[in-house]
Amino acid sequence: MKAHLTRRYMFSASHRLHSDEMSAEENRATFGKCNNPYGHGHNYMVEVTVSGRVDDQTGMVCNLADLDNFVHSEILERYDHQNLNLLPEFAKQVPTTENLCLAIYEIVKRGCLKAHLEKVRIEETMMNSFEYAGEDSR
């Protein structure tokens, strides 16, 4: 029997949406107020959804403590209260929330969780959320 587990986490970070491949005018036209030279911040809400067989002994898809410990050490400690533009994964790409979602998905996917990673969803604002379920989900 396969079940899904979704766990929510929060962190705060800042970013500036800006591409070195575009002119200042193109950046302003494309990113608007998010191209502010001083950046801006968000309180991100991240959902990690995993799936798997419900273990007969524990009754769980995966151990919540293991998932929480992994996300805390590999995601929250990495991104909380950071300027995303200064992180290595965004040295050559714009730190949009779409790209942040892909980066977090890849980190969790490489993790040693026993459950299957279904998707990562990030809520940037009440109006904006982004989701990535891997290349195989097409």
List the helices and strands and how they pair.
Blueprint: E1 2-15, H1 24-31, E2 40-53, H2 64-79, E3 82-83, H3 97-110, E4 116-123, E5 129-132
Explain what this protein looks like in three dimensions.
The chain has 138 residues and is of the alpha+beta class. It has a single domain, classed as Tetrahydropterin Synthase, Chain A. Helices cover 28% and strands 30% of the residues. The chain contains three helices and five strands; from the N terminus they run βαβαβαββ. The chain has a five-stranded mixed sheet. The longest helix is centred in the middle third of the chain and has 16 residues. The chain starts with a strand and ends in a 6-residue tail after the last strand. The model has no long low-confidence stretch (mean pLDDT 95).
Give the full name of the CATH homologous superfamily: 6-pyruvoyl tetrahydropterin synthase/QueD
Q: Measured on Cα atoms, how large is the radius of gyration? A: 17 Å
Oligomer: single chain
Q: Give the overall pLDDT as a whole number.
A: 95
Number of alpha- plus pi-helical segments: 3
- Percent of residues in beta strands: 25-35%
Distance between the termini: 24 Å
Task: Give helix % range.
Answer: 25-40%
Summarize the structure.
The chain is an alpha+beta fold and 138 residues long. The chain has helices spanning 24-31, 64-79, 97-110, and strands at residues 2-15, 40-53, 82-83, 116-123, 129-132. A hairpin with a 5-residue loop joins strand 4 (116-123) and strand 5.
